[in-house]
Give the backbone structure.
Amino acid sequence: MHSIDLTYVGSGIHEELIAHVADQEGYFEEEGVHVALRDGAVWKTERVRGGATIGLGRALLSRLTDGIQWTVLTANTHRPLFWFLGGSEVKSMDDLRGRRLAVHGARTAPGCFARIVLRKHGLDPDRDLQCVERIPGDYQMDLRRLREGSIDAAYVGSTLSAEQVAREEGFSVLSFVGDHFQIPTVGLAVDPERIPLDDPALQALVRANKRALKTIAEQPSLAVKHIHSMLGRLTSAEAEQHYERYVRPYFTSDGRVDLKAAQQGIAAVATELGVSAGTADQMYLPAL
């Protein structure tokens, strides 16, 4: 049996759902590959390069800024699963003006995406609000700080359901990032200098990933079961609502990249970072 490391760089169903389904449904084993799923959220990029990575956003940023030739073989979704969540006094994106927003760093992929969406709402992230940078985790500390009032809003990921948290806590879901910005954001990518694209373990991983994508598209009840197991704070009905709103319509069934969306996303990211997009769109060609 072949073996390969697979790194996720942000917790939650956004990064982990497809790998979780492939593992739990036995696809890795059936494809003849042992996959070591690694938490690389705080790893340096050099270490992430040693295996395959789920985080296509981070891969793109390091390709644009460091010239690492990351290559994408499958894309799970083009809709980043992040939300702006407002505290009790913040009811809209415009209400963020002059407020404190807990958010990822500006030179991280989620933080870059946040800044792009803030600008689309007419907000300058450097002048119109106070961006309180923090290292993301499961966002429970953000919820605690929202309750106590030390921040006014938080940019949160898919370790939780923003709608469910908002209902329980009296908060407001201000915006879903995927409604305003699209880019291949999770899937499978490698640095060909470290892992050749025809590597047998990598190809087996790609096949298993595509099987998992097909499963969540064609077997909704099974997909909901897995989402429910990963988001234990949700009821089964809430897990189904989450699937219908954010997973079923937006996750690919075959791993293919929408190159038009990718090119538009790259242009926005390059502009935000102040770098040239160059030929970054070539990183997606194997997944077309």
